[in-house]
Amino acid sequence: MTEKTPMNEKTTMPERTVMNSNAEDSYLRGVSKRLQALTPEQREAVLDDVRAHFADAADAGRSPEQAVESLGNPAQFTERVRTELGHEEGRTDQMRRVLQWLASGVAVFAAMFVSFWRPDDSLPMPNTQFAVHGFGIVLLSLVPAVIAAVPNFASPRARTVFTAAVAAFLSVLSFVFPDGWAFAPTAWLAWAALVVPVIARNGPPAIGWRIAGGVLAVLPMALAVGGAIVGSWGLELDGVLYTAAVAVLGVLMALGKPWAGIILALLGGAALVSSALYPGMLTSGVWWAGGLFITLGASQALMHARPRKPAQK
Amino acid sequence: MTDERIATNLRKGVLEYCVLALLSHGEKYGLELADDLTTRGLIASEGSLYPLLARMRENGLVEPRWEASGAGRPRRYYAITDTGTEQLTAFTQVWASLGAQVNALLEGSR
């Protein structure tokens, strides 16, 4: 029996007394990389378990390679950990489902907009689609919303294929049909439903994705400021404040703050409503900016959402 | 369903209580715990023990702690918590009742 000396730290790895082997370091890196979906505390506790396993194995006369063999490769091991802690498929599938329903919701709003509110100068007065064509056009406009929701009813095996097909179909629709531009945000959300679960499969997105999201969020405002500078339109105080707020949110998103994504998505929703209620020269621009903010904000918030505590099994 | 599949399904349900039962006799380090479970045919390798311990730790059933061990690397011991002891007591009662019912049924079906 070896002599036991209690240490000060109860749950964190104390200073290492022996150099780790390459196999151990490589294994720990592989595990850490795949457990980004866990909280830092959860991840560190699992890494401590692995470190302790290598130490136990060395004491028992096993080589680091034998210790690795008994754990399984990092991908298998971390999959078991994620499953036990409730971070398996369900987490990324939930992201996909939320984005898909959001796409459907935005499509319903777009359908109401193009049917009831948007004046169409090509139509005789009163010049809204509903006033001219009746209720049938409302039902037709709701088709993209129904299509956007289809992957949520597909079997788990067919879901990815359905999600990709729906995103592609909505993209084509937004280009081809006269009022399709209003459904572009729906198509973006459908693409996000396909891509976000892949980006976030191992946890919060890498820094490159975060920066790309932040830059994309700021892009519409940069265009608005650019247009104002060259004199295409004026920039009021509220526009300046809105631009500054989005710029700050873009930076915070790049820093990985989930609530920044939620606020941006809400701002996007406000932009859609504003664009629908006060149609003007920049209607489609404001509409697209709103759709982009909802897509980026919701994606960012979902990818960074803190993992839940595992349920008692 | 093969014998092995039946055993695997049953093991899944009882494994964490077996870990609690082993720890109720005193704290153990990972490999020691794994060896006990492997000898009893409850797990195939350490690869399934640590993920289970991670969940049990999250649920407050076990608590790990580091201890220096002579000249070697520190050792990580796992101990049962009060919550873990309560769960084990509850499981023991359920198992006794359920086991008796299942045994009675199986004996009656012969």
Which structural traits does this protein have?
heterodimer; A: 313 residues; mainly alpha; disordered N terminus; B: 110 residues; alpha+beta; Arc Repressor Mutant, subunit A; three-stranded antiparallel sheet; 3 strands; 63% helix
What would you say this structure looks like, in words?
The complex is a heterodimer of chains A (313) and B (110). Chain A is an all-alpha fold and 313 residues long. Helix content of chain A is 69%, strand content 1%. Chain A is built from 14 helices and one strand, in the order E-H-H-H-H-H-H-H-H-H-H-H-H-H-H. Chain A has helices spanning 22-34, 40-59, 64-71, 74-84, 89-117, 129-133, 135-141, 143-149, 159-176, 184-199, 207-229, 237-254, 258-277, 283-304; one strand spanning 4-6. In chain A, helix 1 packs across helix 4 (74-84), helix 5 (89-117) runs antiparallel to helix 7 and helix 5 (89-117) runs antiparallel to helix 10. Chain A is elongated and about 90 Å long. In chain A, 38% of the residues are buried. Chain B is of the alpha+beta class and 110 residues long. Chain B has a single domain, classed as Orthogonal Bundle (Arc Repressor Mutant, subunit A), CATH 1.10.10. Chain A binds chain B through residues 2-7, 9-14, 16-18, 42, 45-46, 48-53, 55-60, 70-72, 76-77, 80-81, 83-85, 309-310, 312-313, and chain B through 16, 29-32, 34, 45-48, 50-55, 57-59, 63-76. Strand 1 of chain A pairs antiparallel with strand 2 (62-69) of chain B.
Helix content, binned percent of chain B: 55-70%
Quaternary state of this entry equals heterodimer
Name the CATH homologous superfamily of chain B: Winged helix-like DNA-binding domain superfamily/Winged helix DNA-binding domain
Order of helices and strands of chain A: EHHHHHHHHHHHHHH
Based on DSSP secondary structure assignment, what is the total number of beta strands of chain A?
1
Main beta sheet of chain B: strand number and arrangement?
Answer: 3 strands, antiparallel
Provide the CATH architecture of chain B: Orthogonal Bundle
Poorly predicted parts of chain B: none
The H-and-E topology of chain B, N to C, reads as HEHHEEH
- What is the largest interface, and how many residues per chain? A-B, 44 and 33 residues
Using the alpha-carbon principal axes, give the shape of chain B: elongated
